[in-house]
């Protein structure tokens, strides 16, 4: 079964981009958002059947998939509310952490399969949404309810040009804690260090610093939620990362040329695999 | 006085790019490099009057500026050798740290003004050199000998489209320790952490990780030298950076939503000033 009418709860950069992309494949759209400005912009595109800031109205619509695209803690609250209303239609989400969302969905007893599209930009909001944002990107599915038609969700995202992979929610949070959440913290901390030590030095940053710190210009609401939800993994990962920084400090303190050369060679070799 | 004939000692990415850029402005070029392959490539461009791997031959040429573009410790050794030979023509360099080079030049008693062009790429060698690499970039001058015509050096680089600034060598090393050398260490440490914790997670890196870690694919010889020369600053800076990471760890451990939100907001605001 292909989904024919998808209702989005939350129409920011991620929800908006997914919606625009599905619309190109002929899917009918509806939208719920508390920001009436956003709703007005959505209506203007002519792509949405319904746009509302009223949850009762939203849930009364005849969609066949509810797609939650809210910051992760708001997503958990929304799921809890769906449970309270004994909502039965299939629900998915696009939150950046998956274990707590899965826990909320289990508790709420809804028909749920988690999801996480691996792309983004350092700008937010529906205004910046674009249909092509997720083309070629991974979409991670973290199935929960056996009655959810995961295959239909896979096909929906593959039709939008995404590479779909299945993971356990806990594995997802460890993996993306490591390759996404930790790099964000290290970039925030780097910019903060410059600010604390000598803010005028920012005048002399080159292209390397700009690329390196691009992810530091991220949305505080979204990222605070991520760190609150993925806290246990983040504490372990920060410890592992500080241990690597201590190895660097020791190598420099001991003028250990060989150790430094090998650490750089190893990191450079790994990094070159990615491009 | 404008320099009319510049001899480059070291014709890698930096030396090669500077040479190509000065050639476009009608400057006569010569080159010294121990790699005969590199010399053959330089000769092939038709831009070099002389290309040699013999230091005696190099120093007998009639150039009016010697431009050392070697990894920083080789640059110091080269300067010491110039002192031994009582070399008197003006000498500049392009090394990434400036205090130790200045110390070597003072000791050698040569006519010296240090320099550092603030640009680069994650590839090295003359093959990757390009005339436009430094267009619009800063060039930091760290004058040493009063008899050196700093104004001529300034004009040479301004003619190549660079923004020239004067600094003390020690100030240079603190500033670039902070905005260039430290970010490189944090990127190396990040890639190493992924490798140590779960190397398969590299499959799921998005555009953010790729931008963030681009500088991890850097040349081990060049960067080992930089950390050895700028060791005292780097040890202090790593300590400041680890302190910021500890602040993050504490905020996450205490679920301190407000602290996290403010730290992200502050970092994002600073980062947005750069683009």
From TrEMBL, chains A, B:
Keyword NAD carried by entry: no
BP term (GO), one: tyrosine biosynthetic process
Stretches assigned to the Prephenate/arogenate dehydrogenase domain: 4-275
The record's listing under InterPro entries reads: 6-PGluconate_DH-like_C_sf (IPR008927), NAD(P)-bd_dom_sf (IPR036291), PDH_C (IPR046825), PDH_N (IPR046826), Preph/Arog_dehydrog (IPR050812), Prephen_DH (IPR003099)
Q: Which UniProt keywords apply?
A: Oxidoreductase
Q: Which GO terms describe its molecular function?
A: NAD+ binding; prephenate dehydrogenase (NAD+) activity; prephenate dehydrogenase (NADP+) activity
Classification via PROSITE patterns: PDH_ADH
Q: Which Gene3D superfamilies match?
A: 6-phosphogluconate dehydrogenase C-terminal like domain, NAD(P)-binding Rossmann-like Domain
Q: RNA-binding: present as a keyword of the record?
A: no
Top-rank taxon, per record: Bacteria
Q: Name the PANTHER family on file.
A: PREPHENATE DEHYDROGENASE, PREPHENATE DEHYDROGENASE [NADP(+)]
Q: What is this protein called?
A: Prephenate dehydrogenase
Traced from the root, the source organism's taxonomic lineage reads: Bacteria, Pseudomonadati, Deferribacterota, Deferribacteres, Deferribacterales
């Amino acid at each position: 079964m292909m989904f024919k009418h998808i209702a989005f709860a939350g129409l920011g950069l991620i929800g908006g981009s997914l919606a625009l992309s599905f619309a190109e494949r002929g899917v009918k759209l509806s939208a719920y958002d508390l920001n009436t400005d956003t709703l007005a912009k959505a209506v203007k595109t002519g792509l949405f059947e319904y746009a509302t800031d009223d949850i009762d109205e939203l849930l009364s619509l005849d969609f066949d998939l509810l797609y939650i695209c809210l910051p992760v803690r708001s997503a958990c609250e929304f799921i809890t509310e769906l449970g309270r209303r004994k909502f039965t239609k299939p629900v998915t989400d696009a939150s950046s952490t998956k274990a707590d969302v899965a826990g909320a969905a289990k508790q709420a007893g809804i028909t749920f399969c988690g999801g996480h599209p691996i792309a983004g930009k350092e700008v937010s909001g529906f205004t910046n949404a674009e249909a092509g944002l997720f083309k070629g990107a991974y979409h991670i599915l973290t199935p929960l309810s056996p009655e959810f038609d995961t295959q239909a969700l896979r096909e929906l995202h593959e039709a939008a040009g995404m590479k779909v992979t299945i993971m356990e929610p806990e594995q997802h949070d460890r993996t993306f804690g490591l390759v996404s959440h930790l790099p964000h913290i290290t970039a925030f901390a780097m910019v903060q260090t410059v600010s604390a030590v000598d803010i005028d030095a920012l005048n002399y940053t080159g292209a390397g610093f700009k690329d390196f710190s691009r992810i530091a210009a991220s949305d505080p609401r979204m990222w605070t939620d991520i760190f609150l939800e993925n806290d246990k993994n983040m504490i372990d990962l920060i410890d592992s990362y500080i241990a690597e920084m201590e190895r660097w400090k020791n190598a420099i303190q001991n003028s250990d040329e060989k150790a430094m050369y090998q650490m750089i060679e190893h990191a450079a070799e790994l990094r070159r695999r990615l491009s």
